[in-house]
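Quick check before the chapter quiz. The format below is the same one you will see on the exam, so make sure you can read both the input and the output lines.
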Amino acid sequence: MLITVLATVGAILAIGVGGGMIRPMQSRWERILNAAEQETQHQLGAYQRGRHDAMRTTAAAGEQRGEHAGPGEQATPAGYGTTTAPPSSERPDSGTPLA
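Here is the expected output.
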């Protein structure tokens, strides 16, 4: 009996979604997907703004402590060198020589 009821409900949904309710379901899916896209863009923008603010705050704090950083380097106390790795003839991610 349970299998018959579930099969009937499944058949009604399949016929309704796949047949007669194409337009209403299409508009519902478009609304759902558009809302998800807008939320994703909002979250991504907030993440990027937060990251930018954190980097700016970190750089400002480093300047106040007398730390210096060049392009691509992390700020370190003056006189202690940099945290960048020495040049290598191999790529760290693949192990293949650089071209």
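If your answer matched, good. The two ends are 69 Å apart (CA to CA).
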